[in-house]
Write a structure and sequence with these properties.
With 406 residues, the protein is an alpha/beta fold. It has helices at 5-12, 42-46, 64-73, 83-100, 117-123, 138-150, 154-163, 172-175, 178-192, 211-219, 283-302, 340-350, 378-389; strands at residues 21-22, 38-39, 53-56, 77-80, 104-105, 129-135, 202-203, 222-232, 239-249, 261-268, 272-279, 325-335, 355-363, 366-373, 376-377, 394-403. The relative contact order is 0.13. Catalyzes the conversion of L-aspartate-beta-semialdehyde (L-Asa) to L-homoserine (L-Hse), the third step in the biosynthesis of threonine and methionine from aspartate.
Length: 406
């Protein structure tokens, strides 16, 4: 805002004055930041009557929610990067912004610098989006990429991610899928014009992904990625939003997304398949997205207008995961003897789960059996696995992973 002030003024049509910065600890060194702008009283700052735009990058639910609502009450528009808050209380925030007649923009909340929310909300407003599929968490993508390319185990890859600053000291939000689930809720809501909260997103993290899973994916010509998948049902009567590890073929563009990068596919009826790729986190990428929103909000302010309102006219329900149809990779530890494969196949058939391929390896009385299914519901697969566990010939269900990106 200071080094590019002239450019911002030219793009907006008026200069932008930085009125104050609320921080937790005012005494920390902040090179290049005028000390007189710093305050620890965030509530007083957003409550000033002369503020046009508040930028919220605090994160979390509170005090962020209270401060944003107070900003609206005082006539200020808000630019936020707070995915957790928007995924949980987006309806309340949008309603408050609309009542106050101000903007709520949050491009930085999903996929960092990648322009994604505005294309969905504005560029594709005349199209019908049917699916959003992507990698939206850089930490987990870095870990899975290292497991794939170096043969490292999960713990080793997480340790490297932490050392490089990709993973937080407490990586739970990333590795357990909470971060990606919040982003999936936001994307599904915008793409399908309905209300989706983080609680309605099915979530699995990557903590159970093993080196054996990675190796098995390689044998199939696949890689393992943590995917956020948002879909409109074929009949158009419901939506699904889910986050989980999945095997995708090497031929799929998402398979080549390396390190901590993000990439998202959007599938629309008229536009077809669009791919958005770039750095999904970090100070500079986040700043880029925040400043883009700041320019848009300030332009609206000058013109006496607001941007697109929250569009939730379809009111489509979120379908439970039990009804979601996908393919599965099931790895079993079984006795290495005649008839076991027939037993296993009969259990799949009993529950209406069609088998695509089977791979078996046996040695000294033990065997591993890998079954890849055709498309089936999660409920049917769960019933199949329960029955498999009851077979004397099945020693363990070693792993279950979905297969995507056909």
């Amino acid at each position: 805002m200071t080094t590019t002030a002239d450019d911002l003024a030219a793009r907006i049509g008026a200069p932008v004055e930085l009125a104050g910065i609320a921080v937790r600890r005012a005494g920390r060194p902040r090179p290049g930041v005028p000390e007189h702008l710093l305050t620890t009283d965030a509530e007083a700052l957003v409550g000033r009557g002369d503020i046009d735009v508040v930028v919220e990058v605090v994160g979390g639910i509170e005090p962020s929610k209270h401060l944003i609502l107070k900003a609206f009450e005082n006539g200020a528009a808000v630019v936020s990067a707070n995915k957790a808050l928007l995924a949980k209380d987006g309806a309340e925030l949008h309603a408050a912004a609309e009542q106050a007649g101000v903007d709520l923009y949050y491009e930085a909340a999903v996929a960092g610098a990648i322009p994604l929310i505005r294309p969905l909300r504005e560029s594709l407003a005349g199209d019908k989006v049917n699916r959003v599929l992507g990698i939206v968490n850089g930490t987990t993508n870095f870990i899975l990429d290292k497991m794939d390319t170096t043969g490292a185990g999960y713990s080793e890859a997480l340790e490297e991610a932490t050392a490089l600053g990709y993973a937080e000291a407490d990586p739970t939000a990333d590795v357990e899928g909470f971060d990606a689930a919040a982003k999936a809720a936001i994307l599904a809501g915008i793409a399908f014009h309905t209300r989706v909260t983080a609680a309605e997103v099915y979530r699995e993290g990557i903590t159970e992904v093993t080196a054996a899973d990675i190796a098995s994916a390689k044998q199939m010509g696949c890689v393992v990625k943590l995917l956020a998948i948002c879909e409109r049902s074929a009949d158009g009567e419901s939506v699904t939003a889910r986050v989980h590890p999945a095997m995708i073929p090497l031929s799929h563009p998402l398979a080549s997304v390396r390190e901590a990068y993000n990439a998202v596919f959007v599938e629309a009826e008229a536009a077809g398949r669009l791919m958005f790729y770039g750095p999904g986190a970090g100070g500079s990428p986040t700043a880029s997205a925040v400043l883009g929103d700041l320019v848009a909000v300030c332009r609206n302010r000058i013109n006496g207008a607001t941007g697109p309102a929250d569009s939730v006219y379809t009111k489509l329900p979120a379908k439970p995961m039990d009804e979601v149809v996908t393919r599965y990779h099931v790895s079993l530890d079984v006795d290495d003897r005649a008839g076991v494969l027939a037993q296993v196949a009969s259990v799949f058939a009993e529950h209406g789960v069609s088998i695509d391929t089977v791979r078996q390896q046996g040695r000294d009385g033990d065997a591993s059996l890998v079954v890849v299914t055709h498309r089936a519901t999660d409920a049917a697969l769960s019933a199949t696995v329960d029955k498999l566990r009851a077979l004397d010939s099945v020693r363990d269900v070693a792993s279950i992973m979905r297969v995507e990106g056909e």
